[in-house]
Amino acid sequence: MTGIYAENSEGIFKKSVLEAASYASQISQGQVTAVCIGQPNAGEADKLAQYGVNKLICIDGFSNFDAQTYSKELAQAFANNQISQIVFANTYEAKSIAPRVAVIMNASIASNVIALPETSSGFKVKRGVFSGKGFAYVTLDRANKVIAITPNSTELKENSTTIQIETISATQTTAQTAISSTSKAGGKIPLTEAEIVVSAGRGMKGPENWGMVEDLADILGAATACSKPVSDMDWRPHSEHVGQTGITIKPNLYIAIGISGAIQHLAGVSSSKVIVVINKDPEAPFFKAADYGIVGDAFEVLPKLIEAAKASKN
Ligand SMILES: Cc1cc2nc3c(=O)[nH]c(=O)nc-3n(C[C@H](O)[C@H](O)[C@H](O)COP(=O)(O)OP(=O)(O)OC[C@H]3O[C@@H](n4cnc5c(N)ncnc54)[C@H](O)[C@@H]3O)c2cc1C
Questions:
Q1: Which of 38, 140, 197, 261 has its CA 20 to 30 A from that of 104?
Q2: Which is the closest atom of ligand 1 to the Cα of 246?
Q3: Is the CB of 236 under 6 A from ligand 1?
Q4: 35 phi and psi angles, rounded to 5 deg
Q5: Same fold, 2-169 and 191-313
Q6: pLDDT of residue 188 exceeding 80
Q7: Which atom of ligand 1 is nearest to the CA of 200?
Q8: How far is the CA of 258 from the centre of ligand 1 (A)?
Q9: Do residues 88 and 97 touch, judged by C-beta distance below 8 A?
Q10: 186 pLDDT exceeds 80?
Q11: Residue-range domain boundaries for the chain
Q12: What pLDDT, on the 0 to 100 scale, is given for residue 192?
C-alpha cells in the first residue's frame, strides 16, 4: 500500500504535500493513506482527497516538533496500515524525518526525486544530485520504500476521491528536543511554493533599496529571495537565502537582480523553468544560465519593469 506524510503548517496542507499526494496516487495500486501530526483545519482533508488520498490518519498528542518522536509514530502508523511505499515532500521537516522513518522501517530511500518511477524492471527513480547539476537513477530494492520528492518538480494531477479521517493518540510523546523560541518567515508567499520568485543580490547596494524588489514581487504575485551575502549582512532574512547553502527552489520564473550568478547561488535556482537576469555587467556569469537577460542598472531597469508589469496587469 502507498502512503504519504502530510506535513501541515498550522493546520494547512501546502502545495508540496498535494504534490506528494498526487505522486502517491499515481504510483499506488489502490488506496493512498496520508498520516499527519495533529489536526488539519476544516476543509484541508478534502484537498488531499482531490489528489487521490482515501484515508487520513491524524496523530494527536504532540506539543511541538520533534524529529525523533515524530519519526517513530509515523513509522508505526505506516507499518500498522501495511504501507510500504511512503512519499514525502522534500521539505526541511521531511529532511529530518524521512531518513529516520526509512531506518526504522528498514526501507530503501531516495531524496530529491524529480519524476515518477520507472517500474518496468525494479523500482527506479530519477533524483537530482550535485546541487541540481546532475541526475542519478536509483533503484529502490527493499520491500519498504521512502521517496522524498522535490517541491515543484512533479505534476499535480487531480484524482478526486472520498476521504475517511481517523484520529489516533501518539504513544511516544517524550520529545528528545525542546523548542525554546520560533520566528516566522515574513514573506507573503512561501518561497518553496512560489511559481514566481523575484530575487536580488549585492547589486541592490543596501536593504533600503528593497522596496523596488518587493513592489515588483507584489505586482507579479511572487515571493522574494536573495543571495547569501545579502542575508549574511542582514539586509534580508535568512529564510530568503537561496543556493547551495540556502533553499533550493524550482519556480516557473526566477528573476535575478544584481546577482553575479556564482555557482553556489546557481545550485539552488538553476532548475527554475525560466530565468531572467538583470545585471549591469554584461560579463556577469549569471547571463550564461539565463533565458532572458537585461544588461542595465537595476535602479533604472526596475522602475520601468514595475510600470510595465502594472500596465500589463491593468
Ligand atoms: C561554501 C559556499 C557556499 C555558498 N553558498 C551560497 C548560497 O547558497 N547562495 C548564494 O547566493 N551564495 C552562496 N555563496 C556565495 C557565492 O559564492 C557568491 O559570493 C554570492 O552568491 C554573491 O552574491 P551576489 O551575487 O549578491 O554578490 P556579488 O558577487 O557582489 O555580485 C553582485 C552583482 O550585482 C551586479 N550589480 C552591481 N550593481 C548593480 C546595479 N546597479 N544594477 C545591476 N546589477 C548590479 C554586479 O555586476 C554583480 O554581478 C557561497 C559561497 C561558498 C564559498
A1: 38
A2: 8
A3: no
A4: -120, 130
A5: yes
A6: no
A7: 26
A8: 8
A9: yes
A10: no
A11: 2-169, 191-313
A12: 82
Asked if 205 and 259 count as a contact pair (C-beta separation under 8 A), the reply is no
The architecture CATH gives domain 2-169: 3-Layer(aba) Sandwich (3.40)
230 within 8 A of 202, measured Cβ to Cβ: yes
Please give the mean pLDDT across all residues of the chain.
94
Predicted local confidence at residue 185, as pLDDT = 67
Q: What is the CATH number of domain 191-313?
A: 3.40.50.1220
Q: Is the pTM higher than 0.70?
A: yes
Residue whose C-alpha cell reads 535575478 in the numeric block: 256
The residue type of 86 is I
The verdict on the CB of residue 201 being under 6 Å from ligand 1 is yes
Mean pLDDT of 290-312: 96
> Between helices 210-220 and 298-313, what is the axis angle to 10°?
20
User: How buried is 13 (Cβ within 10 angstroms: 0-12 exposed, 13-18 middle, 19+ buried)?
Assistant: buried
Q: How confident is residue 155, by pLDDT bands cut at 50, 70 and 90?
A: confident
* C-alpha cell of residue 311: 500596465
How far CA 303 is from CA of 211, 260, 266, 283, 307, in Å, comes to 11, 21, 26, 23, 6
